[in-house]
């Protein structure tokens, strides 16, 4: 009886500890998503908004926003991999090469931009890439009519700048946990530096790489601000389409169908990230921080 009472108290304590988070997730995540799914099979009311119905016409109409999907599915992976190319050397230096006394300071310098609103930082890039920024400076040396703002390149630059810390930190965590003795053993066995990097360092840091890619990719799938400001309405993401459908066109069912599709794509990205991490590094799942 005493053992059963102890087990009951343990289960009760577990339920009490999990209850707040469970209620929070159900109220603010599950129920809103259920509402979006219900909206997605409805119809647009004559005055805008939602009208009860059961139809798959909204999903059949997804090709109408093919440009937004195409831009997102092209620029989001390209932006994520561009972040990776910049972030990995930085994380590698911080974890394996930087003096330990400087490590926290350097990490703080990476995180500090997050203390400033992304809106303000993006406006700063609008000025830098605008007519009075870099193009004005280049005009002094004879390079005229160079357009940087309102282009896919400007959007990619804003993506790398805005999301770089989210890529650096997971990779840094994976590299910082790396057992240095494995690197020494690889060198002692005659492996060249490049072989050691590919076979040991990169392989064991792959969970952090996949975590960074997943975080950046999922956030970029719903990105609105950077394409709107640096793309000038010419580089349209799914996030821009959702804002237009919910706030301007007031076509809630069609916007909900796009949102449900976006959630599905995000889940696929996470599954692929975990599969790749498990396949190539042997880790059970992608490390999250």
UniProtKB/TrEMBL annotation:
Family matches, as InterPro entries: MetI-like, MetI-like_sf
Membrane topology summary: Multi-pass membrane protein
Family annotation (Pfam families): BPD_transp_1 (PF00528)
SUPFAM superfamilies in the cross-refs: MetI-like
Keyword vocabulary terms for this entry: Cell membrane, Membrane, Transmembrane, Transmembrane helix, Transport
Cell compartments where the protein resides: Cell membrane
Gene3D superfamilies registered for this protein in UniProt: MetI-like (1.10.3720.10)
Record domain ABC transmembrane type-1: where: 69-273
Residues annotated as transmembrane: 12-39, 68-95, 102-118, 155-175, 195-221, 253-273
GO biological process, any: transmembrane transport
PROSITE patterns found in the cross-reference section: ABC_TM1 (PS50928)
GO cellular component: plasma membrane
Assigned protein family: Belongs to the binding-protein-dependent transport system permease family. CysTW subfamily.
Protein name: ABC transporter permease
Protein species of origin: Aminobacter anthyllidis
Lineage: Bacteria, Pseudomonadati, Pseudomonadota, Alphaproteobacteria, Hyphomicrobiales
């Amino acid at each position: 009886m005493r053992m059963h009472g102890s087990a009951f108290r343990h289960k009760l304590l577990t339920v009490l500890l999990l209850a707040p988070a469970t209620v929070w997730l159900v109220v603010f995540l599950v129920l809103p998503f259920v509402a979006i799914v219900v909206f997605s099979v409805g119809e647009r009311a004559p005055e805008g908004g939602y009208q009860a119905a059961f139809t798959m016409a909204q999903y059949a109409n997804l090709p109408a926003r093919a440009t937004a999907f195409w831009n997102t599915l092209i620029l989001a992976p390209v932006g994520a991999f561009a972040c990776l190319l910049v972030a990995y050397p930085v994380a590698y230096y911080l974890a394996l090469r930087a003096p330990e006394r400087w490590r926290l300071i350097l990490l703080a310098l990476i995180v500090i931009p997050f203390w400033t609103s992304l809106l303000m930082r993006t406006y700063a890039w609008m000025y830098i890439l605008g007519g009075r920024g870099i193009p004005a400076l280049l005009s002094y040396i004879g390079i005229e009519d160079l357009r940087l703002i309102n282009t896919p390149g400007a959007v990619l630059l804003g993506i790398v700048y805005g999301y770089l810390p989210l890529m650096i930190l997971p990779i840094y965590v994976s590299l910082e946990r790396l057992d240095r003795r494995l690197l020494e053993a690889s060198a002692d066995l005659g492996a060249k530096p490049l072989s050691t990097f590919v076979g040991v360092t990169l392989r064991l840091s792959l969970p952090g790489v996949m975590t960074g890619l997943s975080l950046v990719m999922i956030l970029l799938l719903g990105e609105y601000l950077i394409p709107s400001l640096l793309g000038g309405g010419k580089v349209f993401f799914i996030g821009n389409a959702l804002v237009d459908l919910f706030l301007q066109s007031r076509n809630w069912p069609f916007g909900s169908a796009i949102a449900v599709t976006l959630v599905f794509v995000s889940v696929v990205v996470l599954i692929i990230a975990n599969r790749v991490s498990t396949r190539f590094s042997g880790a059970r799942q992608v490390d999250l921080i």
